[in-house]
Amino acid sequence: LEMLRYQLNPHFLFNTLNSISTLVLLKQTDRANAMLSRLASFLRYSLVGEREGLATVAQEAEALKLYLDIERTRFEARLRTRFDIAPDVMEARLPSLLLQPIIENAIKYGVSRATRPVSITISADRRDDNLVLSVIDDGEAVEAAHVGGNGIGLANVRDRLEARYKSAARLDTQSVQSGGFIAILTLPLSHRITA
Fold first, then answer.
1. What is the structure's pLDDT at 192?
2. With 0-12 CB in 10 A as exposed, 13-18 as middle and 19+ as buried, what is 75?
3. Distance between CA atoms of 85 and 61, rounded to whole angstroms?
4. Among 2, 9, 6, 1, which residue's Cα sits nearest to residue 152?
5. Contact (Cβ atoms closer than 8 angstroms) between residue 135 and residue 103
6. Backbone angles phi, psi at 11, to 5 degrees
7. What are the tens digits of pLDDT across the range 115-161?
8. Which residues, 6 or more positions from 84, have their beta carbon under 8 angstroms from its beta carbon?
9. What is each CA distance from 126 to 67, 143, 160, in whole angstroms?
10. Are 134 and 183 in contact (CB under 8 A)?
């Protein structure tokens, strides 16, 4: 988990700092300051977490919103996002930053390669005793294997699921022929224990 936290995509960090620099040069200080604030909050979340490496769905969604807001500064109208989180899973727990590599793939393969607006939908709900999370983009059509079937990001997600849940969790991916990519994570439902 520590290695994953320090493995933040260097391209994301480079592109973010480059965008901030451009905003400063254009004297758009309010936008630059907002982007710096989001970057600091996102980095804080990615580096500091619960000892066991778990976060609630609500915490993970807030971190993803920060990340996507930063990316939206780069891609502007080409990046559209929607969160569809069922209220009864907001306190459910999952490994922190579990969705991050999947979102990075959606940006890298779905948004950055498209000239049209691309939507990314992040959803979470309960199915029986499972937490089901999905990330769906309607970007360019890409072969599933090319989007990390053998790459580091999705392999890390699968390894983390295996390490924590053994065969009780899985990541299913599907490339959509008309364009887009679907990633669905299914893991045992657990909630934060409150005092």
1. 52
2. middle
3. 9
4. 9
5. yes
6. -65, -40
7. 899 999 999 999 999 999 999 999 877 665 555 445 678 888 998 89
8. 121, 122, 123, 124, 125
9. 25, 29, 20
10. yes
Sheet holding 130-137, edge to edge: 79-85, 118-127, 130-137, 181-188, 170-175
Query: Whole-model pTM?
Result: 0.79
Torsion over CA: 170, 183, 85, 156 (sign): positive
Residue type for position 158: R
Cα separation of 94 and 181, whole Å?
22
One-letter amino acid at 106 equals: A
Identify the H or E element spanning 39: helix 29-47
CA dist 96 and 44 (Å) reads 13
Contacts for 191 with CB less than 8 Å, ≥ 6 apart: 91, 92, 93
